[in-house]
Amino acid sequence: MSSKSSSLKQLALQKFKKNFWGVFSLCFIGFVGVVSVFAYAFAPDNSQYANQMHLSIHSKRPGYTVTMLTIPSELKVNQNMFDKLFFGKKNTDSEIPISEYHIDGETLIYTEYASDGLEGVKKTMELSRFPNSDAVSFIKEKSFLFGTDKYGRDLLSRVLVGARISFFIGFVAVFISLVIGIFMGSIAGYFGGKVDAVIMWIINVTWSIPTLLLVIAITLALGKGFWQVFIAVGLTMWVEVARVVRGQIISTKEMQYVTAARALGFSDYRIITKHILPNIMAPVIVISAANFAAAILIESGLSFLGIGAQPPMASWGAMIKDHYNYIILGKPYLALIPGLCIMSLVMAFMLIGNALRDALDVKG
User: Fold this and answer.
1) Which CATH number is 2-34+156-359's, of 1.10.3720.10, 3.30.160.250, 1.20.120.530, 4.10.410.60?
2) For this UniProt entry, which segments traverse the membrane (predicted)?
3) pLDDT digits (tens, 9 = 90+) for 239-261
């Protein structure tokens, strides 16, 4: 039995490897996962939430470069490397875009950047504000590969940090939906009768409520926030898993190996977890991939409506909300870039779901 199971797994793996788009999607999802975990290591702006604002250079085109003066802060912040790597740097320094500067004795004289051909304000600063009176080392050219948003923040950094929410909400929501859906579907399908009728009534009532409306209601009940959105999305996706698991168990529980397990006196818990569930996980895996994509779209919709991840937290949906009006103002990339990120990640999960469906179809 084990050799047969092993051979089926190898056959499924071989079929999956032959699917170009499935393998490509898996690699892309893995790449996005690495970027999500180590977003602050890749982001040019590694401050918390990539929230370093420069209002004088807002809505600049991709590839824009400006001279940036960094004024060190006297406030000392104790932050370990782990915290900086995964949660961003608590930046207390001030960054000022400038158009020109020169040093006169012990004084730094600089002109703040002003757009639209305007002349910026000239200011002075004592060189003693800088370590070793070396102001030049704090003046550098800064490039914005994706340009800046309407608050003058680095758009590339916001996209990289925003990938974390869109990516991890899929994992959390699918995990919650699997735990609840497999539990409810297993009980309903295995025991049947009144238990099945009650659970199916709960499933049908939940199913009849529009998903986005139910998520909004749960979010309002739990409050606005990061984890509340994750939980709310997960609690709306379990019904599909439950229906699939219930149907599979109903068609499987009369199989000979289940009857043999009952004859040997095994408990219902062991029969469900050790004998039935391992043999019906193929369709559950496929629907989980689709739920990943659905969770990303739901979170983006909630953030667009303003009840998802709250500012200053970066989110692809919130970025579209902030910049969708720029589509008709000649700067569509501010909304299109996060939109393309959502589309590509959702497409990758749908393609890998199709590849898994084909690979796990042993009859094919």
Assistant:
1) 1.10.3720.10
2) 20-43, 165-191, 198-220, 226-245, 276-298, 333-356
3) 999 999 999 999 888 888 888 88
